[in-house]
Amino acid sequence: MSEQNIIALEPVIKENIWGGNRLVTEFHYLEEGSGLGECWGISAHPHGDCRIAEGTYQGKTLSWLYQEHRELFGDIKSPEFPLLVKIIDAKDKLSIQVHPDDAYAKEHENGSLGKTECWYVMDCPEHAELIIGHNAKTRQELAEMVHAGRYEELIRRIPVKKGDFVQIVPGTIHAITPGMLILETQQSSDVTYRVYDYGRLLNGKPREIHVEQSIAVTNVPDEADKKGFIHTQGLCPNKLHELISCEYYRVFKLNIEGSFTMDQSYPFLLVSVLDGEGKLGERVIRKGEHFILPAGFGKVAFTGKMEFILSTVGCEK
Ligand code: ZN
């Protein structure tokens, strides 16, 4: 028996013009609705602060729990809860973006954090492509291509399959494409520069493009499509596989077939059930649930057939 209980969360569902309906039809987060692009499954961000779903802290927000009970999070020093885990359902195209790093965001965005993120592809159409990186060789060439609107030439498209994983460091131009379902683990930040929006109009007007910021923060030349790309399809079940370890987070893939027991030895462990159904100890857990295994949880006993992405803080925290 564990000393601690799991901390189950109520996700925050976001409407987006590019969103689909899978968060309703497949994940049942809401009874109905469409144009629902994002499920913030584990978040203490002011734009979507998850509530605790059950137990001692039921109804409290994750940001409250983090401030009041830091011991559940291994007494880490970060002043705000550092991570944000989302499921993204893109029915339409998302604008092409780039994020600043901590130093640029601090100076230009009122002390905000930059944003490093990573994507696990939960589902995608056949022959799907991700937009990762660009083809300009110098910053001057980048600026020329942006100012001339030569975006189709600029952006780099790479083929992607269900089960692929990619790390997106600050300065990487990126976008997911229609039909993709993504589990994103990221620094808890919302600072985004829009590079290109395919010339679309919203209420008759194009959305703002952050031309100067994009040119300033984009990595040149960019090799993002060659680094940080992992194919997880062949990973064996009943083993915790680390996909990435960086300054901000460590992310793991775990597939359960039958039973598997592990030690929760991290400051805390964020868990998202991507598929299947089973048990964690005596509690039934199923596809679409997001929860936290707090510090001191001890032995984690899984049974069933399930697929997870898990994460915790990075090595330097
Ligand atoms: Zn992003």
Describe, in plain words, how this protein is organized in 3D.
Helices cover 12% and strands 43% of the residues. The protein has 317 residues and is mainly β. The chain has 2 domains: 3-231, Jelly Rolls (Sandwich), CATH 2.60.120.10; 241-313, Jelly Rolls, CATH 2.60.120.10. The strands form 6 sheets. Strands 1, 6, 19, 20, 21, 22, 23 and 24 form an 8-stranded antiparallel β-sheet that branches. Strands 2-3-7-14-9-12-18 form a 7-stranded antiparallel β-sheet. The chain is globular. The mean pLDDT is 94. Bound molecules: zinc ion (ZN). Zinc ion binds next to loops.
Describe the sheet with the most strands: 8 strands, antiparallel
| Overall CATH class of the largest domain | Mainly Beta
| Helical content class | 10-25%
Given as residue ranges, the uncertain stretches (5+ residues, pLDDT < 50) are none
Output the CATH homologous superfamily of the largest domain: Jelly Rolls
Which ligands does the model contain, each kind named once? zinc ion
Q: What percentage of the residues does DSSP assign to strands (E)?
A: 35-45%
| Terminal Cα span | 29 Å
Q: What is the averaged pLDDT score?
A: 94
